[in-house]
Amino acid sequence: MDNLTKKNNISNIKLTTARKSILDILVNSNKPLCYEDLKDKIIMDKATFYRNISFFEEQNLINSFESNDKKRYFEIKDKEHIHFICSNCSTIECIYQKPNFSLDGYKIDTIILKGKCKECNLNEQ
């Protein structure tokens, strides 16, 4: 959490107990998490969770995206990376390899690739 505070200058944000709980979990996760992944680890209702998540998005502290399962996933905004979502098992992976393409004149915020993960691809052969 200290790295997040220094990097994103969140010292001017009021860190309530609910906000700190959510941020602590997201900071310590190595993958994006949905509400269902978090609900057993936090003590707050769904409305409070989403109100705080919206606040974090407005403050540019977290990224979010929707997956195959129609759930919204959240993660701390840190290193730019690509998300790979398996069409078969719905696993979400963070890929830190830089893509070998660019789009002239565009600023890309998010790249989500869909296909078969390595494991599903191997099991099919």
From TrEMBL:
Top-rank taxon, per record: Bacteria
Pfam family, one: FUR
UniProt-listed InterPro entries: FUR (IPR002481), WH-like_DNA-bd_sf (IPR036388), WH_DNA-bd_sf (IPR036390)
Entry protein name: Transcriptional repressor
